Each structure stands twice: as structure tokens, then as C-alpha cells.
Amino acid sequence: MTGTATKPDSIIAVERWNGFWGARDLEGMKTVAADDFIQWHATVRKNLTKDEEFDMLVEALKVMQIQFKDIRLTPMSNDTVLQQCLGDITIAGAGSRNDVPFAMVFHTRGQQITRCDEYMDGMSLPPIDFTPKD
Q1: Does pTM top 0.85 for this prediction?
Q2: Which of 26, 31, 35, 129 is deepest in the core (most CB within 10 A)?
């Protein structure tokens, strides 16, 4: 019998999330996000519920194109995954930036994501007008 490495559920969840995001399949992403999913963006600086996050993504995709590349996933303790990557971002009327450093910390339960904390080099981003305001 030959040994085959199996991926942890946490990595499977994040890979599925990334695959759906790459295809701009928000409905697919919703299947990976747990019902109690929370998103925290460095640009917004507040916890967004699942509904708030996906409402924002619908608006964001009307004016923004972002492609993540050089994605590195590192499984951590407690079903957490660190994702490091670069993003090429274009925002209509605001310009483009390439190779913006991003880091995401995904918390998972089984093959679902319960929380994503997203950090990026904000000084490298074009102006963003579609983020919610308090």
C-alpha cells in the first residue's frame, strides 16, 4: 500500500474558497462560508457578517478587478490557515496597482470557513469608494 498525503479540511476549505473567488462565483463562496461567517478587512476595520460581506462583494465587483497570485497556504493550529499572496488590483476610475501584498488568516470548521481576517498593504491600494462606512 502506498501512502498518500491527505490535505487537512482547513486547506481544502481555503482552496475551494480561492477557486470560487477566482471564478467570481459568489454563490460557490457562500457554500464554503459557514452561516456564522465573519469577514474582517483592513480597509473596513469592522466585522462583517456573511450577508454584509457578500453584499459588499457584489458592489466591489462592479468596479474592481483583483487577481490573487503567488498564493502560499500554511496550516496553523486550531484549524487556522495563513494565506500569503500578491494581488493585482484595478478599480474603475481610480487606477491599478500590481503586486500588492496580502495576508489572510482563515479560521475553519470542517471544510467551511468561519472567519477571514484580511490584511493588505493599504498604501499600495488605489482609492476604494465602495467599502461600508460606520
Answers
A1: yes
A2: 26
